[in-house]
Amino acid sequence: MRRLAVIVAPLFAAALAAAACSNGSAPTVTGAASTSVASATVPAAGAGPAPTIGSLLTRPIVLAHAGGDDDYPHSTPFAFGESANAGVDVLDLDVRLSSDGVLMVQHDDNVDRTTNATGPVATRTAAELHALDNAYWFNRACNTCKSRPAADYLWRGVRTGAVAPPAGYTPDDFAIPTFEDIATRFASYPLNIEIKGTIDDGIGIPVATALAAELKALGRENSVVVTSFDDAVLAAFHQLAPTVELSPGQQAATAWVLTGAPLPDGMRILQVPPEFQGFTVLTADLVAKADAAGYPIWAWPNGGAFESADGYRKLFALGVAGVNASKPAAAVAAKPPPS
């Protein structure tokens, strides 16, 4: 039992922490409709309302991890727009605060990996973050590695006006967006939101507080799932927004796996990776155990071996309720019809 605890604890930490740079396949520019204007697929600002989270749990779903970060630049409006056009059910994103207290859609605590700048997110205003080229390092060979020929960085310069945007999009669609922008422009899509930061680093609680306030102001409390690495951050958020669906953090999820301890109030959706460091996590037995407990599983391939059309089909075949995919179109194609 002690050995299992040692394995499972870091496993759930990895599952609930945001994905690092993953190996990606070549993205394709589709020329899809803009996220800034009305179209048949991507809603205009104010469209909606989004389905409630409870309504999603009756059928298999696909979540677009960071907007589909193997196919499109991480967490850009362009990525969310293309994922919506691909037919995903839920948009997945991370939030943290700018230096002037604006809730931004941003994974890393610095801007080095994806943009044309360097330095901490927390030292830049929302306007300064928004001005950066958030597609600067995205490429077809290795996601955001920095060793490729310049021609491989497909959308570099769109944000700054040096390159024309794909049909229907604007330079702003390649920026670091605010949470309000994504939550309103994609008002008919449920959101899966990770709060960045912890109790100890002093970041998690301010982010949780800002998110609770924005969800209330935007009328989004019933159409989002919120999670965090830190169970204490989730507990604080739950006090501020008691009706919002939650996914458990590291401690609560590990306790359920090891002992069957019920998840805390407000938590029923488990988000776990299929495997971690060679250890198989997601099995038919685990899915059956979760189903019996009333805890649907949203599998998170996290850039691993299951991050492909075949991998997505295998995950759905295990009976998971959802797949949080970095290749949205492939996952939509792999999704089984509702039973």
Write the layout of secondary structure elements.
Layout: H1 2-16, H2 53-56, E1 61-64, H3 77-86, E2 90-97, E3 103-105, H4 126-130, H5 179-185, E4 191-195, H6 204-218, E5 224-228, H7 231-240, E6 245-246, H8 250-259, E7 270-272, E8 275-276, E9 279-280, H9 284-293, E10 297-299, H10 309-317, E11 322-325, H11 328-334
Parallel strand pairs: 1-2, 1-11, 2-4, 4-5, 5-6, 7-10, 10-11
Antiparallel strand pairs: 2-3, 8-9
Helix pairs in contact: 1-8, 6-7, 10-11
The major sheet is characterized as: 9 strands, mixed
The percent of residues in helical segments reads 25-40%
Radius of gyration: 19 Å
CATH class (first level) name: Alpha Beta
Describe this structure in words.
With 339 residues, the protein is α/β, with parallel strands linked by helices. It has one domain: TIM Barrel. The chain has eleven helices and eleven strands. Strands 1, 2, 3, 4, 5, 6, 7, 10 and 11 form a nine-stranded mixed sheet that branches. A two-stranded antiparallel sheet has the order 8-9. The longest helix is centred in the N-terminal third of the chain and has 15 residues. The N terminus is likely disordered.
